[in-house]
């Protein structure tokens, strides 16, 4: 019974790779991948209706969000979208980064990662009249090749520096008590359910790469990637679309539906994003010893199955919070009430770890399980295991 694929059921299932073992992944459709890339980067699913008409973010940006402030809260600029003349002026320090009008210009150039703006000439001046958000806002960043926060896109990388709460709290439509909660989340965290149940347990923004062959992509395995894409697009991004999950008591419908038909291509692009290799993996001997600990004394491989993308969720297993020493609060708000074993992908890149970011380093992850699981690993074994994890 595929109850987890509730949102756009047939479309979601078409993008799931629930039964693919390592080495036998289905080929991806290159045309769908290209279509999905544009959806991921630029499609708002019609959410300008909320972010402009309700949240009035176009007014906030125009009045008070300079490029300096935008970069400070983790927004990024796609250098490839900037004409050479603009790049030259930036490099020469000839662009006023403290002027919100410069931000409007960047939006006009479609250079702000994850934001789509409509800029019109009003009384001879560029004026931001509409603004919306895309998937890339939280699940893409740049490589800082031009300057900090300015560079080439790295789609699928978690926006670990993005302070979503601080950005949304700029809206005059958000109540003051909720603004205080959002501002306390900090960079790289977001609560994707607070507007549904009123509770507050923010989780880290996860990477969207390395998903091909993983059955359930969310922390609590509520469903596959298209389930989560539909949930976020409709209930969090405020796009115009349909989402239905009786387990959570959520039914949202919209006419027209600007989400459902795009889910297969969006998922195909996400599945095409490979986890980045660590450019400086460390000492080979320590890594080899760490692999032995992982597969032996550490017991990691009993749940992080190497033959199943380092997770046992492909075999239908979920875990209570008590099994792994996790805080149960977030899981209690979800459809499953349990946590999925996280596939180990690109770990070197996206600290902090665990769903709530409670482990700042991989060493802290190892220490947590050494205590919770009573592993009895020596200091040397713990160090070697962390070294191995950095290669995954």
Explain what you see.
There is one protein chain. The protein is α+β, with helices and mostly antiparallel strands and 392 residues long. The chain is 35% helix and 9% strand. It has helices at residues 9-14, 30-42, 48-54, 57-64, 67-72, 84-91, 100-108, 136-139, 164-168, 176-183, 194-197, 225-236, 263-272, 284-295, 321-324, 362-372, 379-389, and strands at 77-78, 115-122, 125-133, 140-142, 150-151, 153-155, 189-190, 203-204, 243-245, 250-252. The chain has a two-stranded parallel sheet with strand order 1-5. Strands 2-3 form a two-stranded antiparallel ribbon. Strand 9 (243-245) and strand 10 form a beta hairpin. Helix 12 packs across helix 13 (263-272), helix 14 packs across helix 17 and helix 16 (362-372) crosses helix 17. It is globular, with a radius of gyration of 21 Å.
């Amino acid at each position: 019974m595929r109850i987890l694929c509730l949102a756009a059921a047939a479309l979601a299932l078409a993008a799931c790779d629930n039964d693919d073992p390592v080495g036998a992944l289905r080929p991806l459709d290159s045309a769908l991948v290209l279509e999905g890339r544009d959806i991921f980067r630029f499609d708002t699913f019609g959410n300008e209706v909320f972010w402009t008409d309700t949240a009035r973010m176009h007014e906030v940006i125009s009045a008070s969000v300079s490029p300096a402030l935008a970069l400070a809260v983790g927004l990024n600029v796609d250098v490839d979208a900037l004409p050479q003349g603009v790049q030259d002026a930036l490099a020469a320090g000839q662009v006023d980064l403290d002027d919100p009008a410069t931000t409007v210009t960047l939006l006009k150039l479609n250079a702000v990662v994850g934001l789509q703006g409509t800029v019109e000439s009003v009384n001879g001046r560029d004026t931001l009249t509409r603004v919306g958000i895309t998937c890339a806002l939280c699940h893409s960043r740049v490589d800082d090749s031009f300057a900090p926060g300015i560079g080439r896109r790295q789609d699928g990388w978690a926006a670990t520096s993005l302070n979503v709460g601080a950005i949304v709290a700029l809206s005059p439509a958000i109540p003051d008590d909720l603004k205080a909660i959002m501002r306390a989340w900090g960079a790289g965290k977001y609560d994707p359910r607070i507007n549904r149940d009123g509770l507050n347990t923010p989780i880290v923004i996860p990477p969207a790469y390395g998903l091909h062959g993983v059955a359930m992509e969310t922390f609590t395995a509520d469903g596959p990637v298209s389930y989560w894409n539909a949930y976020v697009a409709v209930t969090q991004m405020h796009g115009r679309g349909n989402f239905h999950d009786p387990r959570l008591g959520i039914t949202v419908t919209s006419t027209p539906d600007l989400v459902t038909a795009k889910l297969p291509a969006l998922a195909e692009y996400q599945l095409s994003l490979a986890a980045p290799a660590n450019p400086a993996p460390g000492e080979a001997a320590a890594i080899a010893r760490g692999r032995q600990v992982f597969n032996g004394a550490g017991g990691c491989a009993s749940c992080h199955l190497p033959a199943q993308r380092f997770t046992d969720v492909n075999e239908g297993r979920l875990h209570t919070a008590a099994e792994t020493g996790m805080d149960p609060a977030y899981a209690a708000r979800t459809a499953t009430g349990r946590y999925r074993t996280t596939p180990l992908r690109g770990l070197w890149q996206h600290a902090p770890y665990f769903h709530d970011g409670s482990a700042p380093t991989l060493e802290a992850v190892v220490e947590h399980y050494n205590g919770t699981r009573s592993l009895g690993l020596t200091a040397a074994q713990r160090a070697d295991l962390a070294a191995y994890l950095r290669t995954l």
